[in-house]
Structure formats: C-alpha cells, structure tokens
Fold:
Amino acid sequence: MKLAVISDIHGNEQALKSVLDDVSKVGATHVAVLGDISYRGAKPKECLNLVRELQAKVIKGNADEWIVRGVQQGDVPDKALSLMQTEQAWAREQLSDEDINYLHELPITLEIPLSNQSQLFAFHATPTSIFDVVSNQVPNDDLKPFIDANPRANYYLYGHIHFPYMRSFEGKKILNTGSVGLPFDGDPRASYLLFERAEKDIQVQFRRVGYDIEKACHDLDEAHYPAAARELVKGIYRTALKP
Structure:
C-alpha cells in the first residue's frame, strides 16, 4: 500500500494538479485530504472537483468551515478580517449549494490502518478543533492531546500550519503534511506526505513538487480574484513565507 496525504490546497489548481501528477507517478494506491480545499486561491471550484474525483478520504479544515459559515470576528486578527471576509465571499460565489453542503458535511478526524500493527490518525489542526494552532516548535507536552485522543494510533498527522515536519514522541510519530497550495516554510514547491508499507515497517517520505507559480499568479488575475488580496497571495506563492 502507498498512501498519499495532501492538505491545504487553498484553491491553487496549478499546485494541486502537479501534486496529483506526482501522486500518480509514485504509484500511490490511496489518497487522503486533510482539508482547506478551496478558500484563498483562484480556482476554488476546480480544486474541489479534483478532490472529489479522487474518491479520497477527506476531512474538514478551518478554511472549509469559513466557506460554509463565513470568517467571523475572533477567527483572525482584526486587521485581516475585512480582507478575508471579501475573499470568502468571492470563493463562496464560485461554488454551488451542493458544494457548500459537501464541505459542511465533512468529518474532522480520520483513521487509516497502514498495516496490521500501524494505524494513522489524521485531523486538520487538532483532534478537537479545526482552528487551533500547534506549531512545529511547540514542546512535546503540547502534542500529548494528539495521543490522548487516539492512543491506539502510531502516526498522528495534521495540516493547518503549512510547515512540514516530523517528530518522535512517546514512541509515536507526529507529522505535518505542509501545504500543497500555500507553503509557509520558505520552499515554494507544493508539499505532501507519502506512506509506504514495507516488509517490516512503514516508510514515510516528504515529497516536494515544483509547479508553474507564475501561471498560478496569472490565474488570480484571470479569475478577477479580489484585488486587495491578489498581490498578497502572489507573494506567498513566490516566497513561501507567511504574510
């Protein structure tokens, strides 16, 4: 079995297509998606369609919930609220009522058996919240709620922070997928994880996939993405740095 786990696509069709090409190239037999599919990118509908065509296991991220119910005060810093509400309204207009309902109905956690001895437990941000932030720099004790939520699992996997990493803790592996569409780790290439069942263990590989960033920037212009956010998103594509 080969399992590809992708997250945080954020409406970046160019990045998603390149990742899916790589997923096919490496021979992945299963795909899981850890949320944030459509919001903050030029192609919300196209990305959602691509994800749904995968017949993958999919869970909800905070940006999927924003599409459904809006970006509310307290969700983001006050100075960013108006801009992000404008982006949300634009993205929602690109989706059908059926699309919105699909996002609304997504679960928030996912369990996948990797072998007879190994199980993966996945969520977008934490096992109990799609909004809380657990950075790659937190002390180990801050990761204990992951394990407490599902002690049977061996691998705990999340997205949300757009920063890929792996850490061992209490005999478990804690991993972040990084982001397909909006990396924040200084590497503009799309990021995802590949799990492969070997004879006696599970092999984990962080995959980085280049894509046509300037085409993704052009997509924002062509789609008439909200002007106030357009250069900000282009800057993230080009630098892979959090704004």
In short: Helices lie at 13-25, 44-53, 62-69, 78-93, 97-105, 144-149, 213-222, 227-239. The mean pLDDT is 98.
